[in-house]
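Pilot study result, target chain (98 residues):
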Amino acid sequence: MQRELAAADGVAFAVRTVHVEYLKPARLDDALVVETTTAGLGGATIDARQVVRRSPDGDTLAEIDVRLACIRLADGRPARIPVPVRDALARHIVVTKA
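Predicted structure:
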């Protein structure tokens, strides 16, 4: 998706902030599952929530809040999220209690 956005709209997503809560350790040979949900949309930002679980026991190892910023590749300035991307993400916003 990143390449298509760059080619079509001249924009990309960059990580703006990350907050991680490490709950349990993972081992080098553990199989992990990362579940990502869209938590919110701004004009130029996406808030996502990621939960890392160990497979197959399902233990939650980490909870991650990520804010992505849509930027213009030409100058690195903020850009509005393209409408097709916004529409696709808006259908999948998950509201959680804080």
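One observation from the pilot: The chain is about 15% helix and 50% strand. A full batch analysis is planned for the follow-on phase.
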